[in-house]
What we know:
heterodimer; A: mainly alpha; ABC transporter involved in vitamin B12 uptake, BtuC; two-stranded antiparallel sheet; B: alpha/beta; Rossmann fold; 6-stranded mixed beta sheet; 4-stranded antiparallel beta sheet; 10 helices; about 25% strand; AAA+_ATPase (chain B); transport (chain B); ATP hydrolysis activity (chain B)
Amino acid sequence: MSxxxxxxxxxxxxxxxxxxxxxxxxxLIYGVIRLVNFAHGDLxxxxxxxxxxxxxxxxxxxVVLPLLxxxxxxxxxxxxxxxxxxxxxxxxMITGFIVTLSVSVALQNLGLILLxxxxxxxxxxxxxxxxxxLGGIDVAIIDxxxxxxxxxxxxxxTVFVKTTRMGIAMRAVSENTLAARLMGISINRVVLLVFGxxxxxxxxxxxxxGGKFGQIDPLMGFVPGLKAFVATIIxxxxxxxxAILGGYILGxxxxxxxxxxxxxxxxxxxxFVFGLLILILxxxxxxxxxxxxxERA
Amino acid sequence: xxxxxxxxxxxxxTRVLTDLTLEVGAGExxxxxxxxxxxxxxTLMALSGLLPIAQGTATLRLDGQTFDLTRAxxxxxxxxxxxxxxxxxxxxxRLTIEENLRLGAFLNRDEARVRxxxxxIYALFPVLRERRHEAAGGLSGGEQMxxxxxxxxxxxxxxxxxxxxxxxxxxxxxERIFDTLRDLNAERGVTLLLVEQNAMMALDIAHRGFVIRExxxxxxxxxxxxxxxxxxxxxYLGLSA
Lengths: 297, 241
C-alpha cells in the first residue's frame, strides 16, 4: 500500500470518528423519542467554544480539559432538552423538524452575538500537531488521538447501555414508552440523560474538530450535524453500531473523494457525500443496520 | 384495599368511564368483565396512573397507609405495591428475558433481592430460565405472557392489575396461566384485579366480579353468583339463559 493511501486511511479514520461522535447522540435521541434533532450538530460548536474558553483561562490542565468539555456538553444537551424539546414530546414529526431547526438557528445566532462571526484560531497544545512516524509515513498525533478516544467512548457507551440499570432503561423506553412507565421508569429522566450523553459526545467532537482543523466559528456545527444525520441514516436510525459505522463510511468516503479525485472536484465533496446517501437509501431504504420496524415513528 | 368511587375518565373527546364504583378487598381476586369498549382497560390504566382521572376518588389502603390514585404517577404506585400488567403483554421484545425481568424491579436497588426475586420467577416459569439470554421477542405467545406476569411480579406487587391474560392464547395455555394466578393469590396473598374477555374463566377463579357497561358497574357480586346469573350468562358468557 502506498504511503499516500495510508495517509488517507488515517485521515478517514480521524474525520469518520468526528462524524461518529456526533452521529451517536443523533441516533440515541432519535431512538428514544423519535426526534430528528437538527440542533444536535450545534452542540459541537458549543463544545468547541467551551474548549476555546477553557484554554483562554490558561488555568486548566490538559488532562482535565476534555472532562470539563464533556460536562459542558452534557449540561448543554440537557438544558436544550429541558427548555425546548420537552414541551413538544410526542408531537408530530413535522413539529420536531421546525422546533429543532429553530433551536439550531437560535444557537448559531447566540454564538454570533456572544462570540462574533470572526473565526477563532484554536491554540491546541503543540504536541497534538506533532507528527510521528507510522510505517514509513508521518501522521499527526491528533489524527491518532481522535480515533482512539472515539473508540474508548463507543466501548464505554456500549457497556453502559448493555449492562447498567439506566442503560437497560434507555433501551426499554426506546422500544415501548408505555411499558417503561409501568416499570416505574421516569421517562423525563431517561430522555434528559440521553440528551446529556449526546451533548457530551458532540462537545467532545467539537474539541477535536478545533484541534484538527485549527479554526472554529459559530456556524461550524451545522454542516457536520447534517452529515452526522446522513451517517445515522446510512447506518440505520436508532442503531448505535450503525451510527458509528455510518460515521466512518462517511469519513472515508469524503476523504476518498477529496484525495483520489482530480483536484477540480474536491470542492464538491458535500455533493458526493449526499449522493452516497441517496445511493445507499435506494438499495437499503432503512439503512445498513436499521430494521423496518424502526419506521413506526 | 382498593376503593374506587364515581370515577370519570375521558380519552380524547369520549368519556369512557362515566361513574365507576368498585371495591376490592385485600387478598381477593376481583374480575372486571364486560363487552369491548365498556371501559375495562381504561379503568386499569387510570388506576395505575397512565390516564388522568377527571373526577371521582380512587384510594389504595395498604398496611395502614393510604395512597390517592387520582394524582399519582406510575413510579409512585409501583413503589406502593400496585403493579399493572398491561393489555397485549407489552414485553420489551428487543431486550433479553433477563433484562425484562430486571426492569420489573427497576425501582429496587437491592441487587441481592432482585437476584432472589428473579430466581423465584425462574422457579415459577422454568422455560424463562432456559432462554434468559435470548431476545424476548422470540418467545411464543404463552411464554411472553409468563414473562409479562414474571416481570410484574418482580415489582413485588401487593395489588396486581392484569389486563386480558388470555388474549391470543391457546385454551390449555390460558388454563395454565389461570392456575398460576390462582396460586399467586392463594400462596403469596397477591390481590388481583383481573380484566377478562374470557368471562367464564375469570369469574371461575374470582371471589368478586363486576360487570361493566358504558363506563359504570352494572352488576356486582361474588364470582359464583355472577356465573349463575342468567343475564350475565346471556350477555357475556355467550350462553342463552
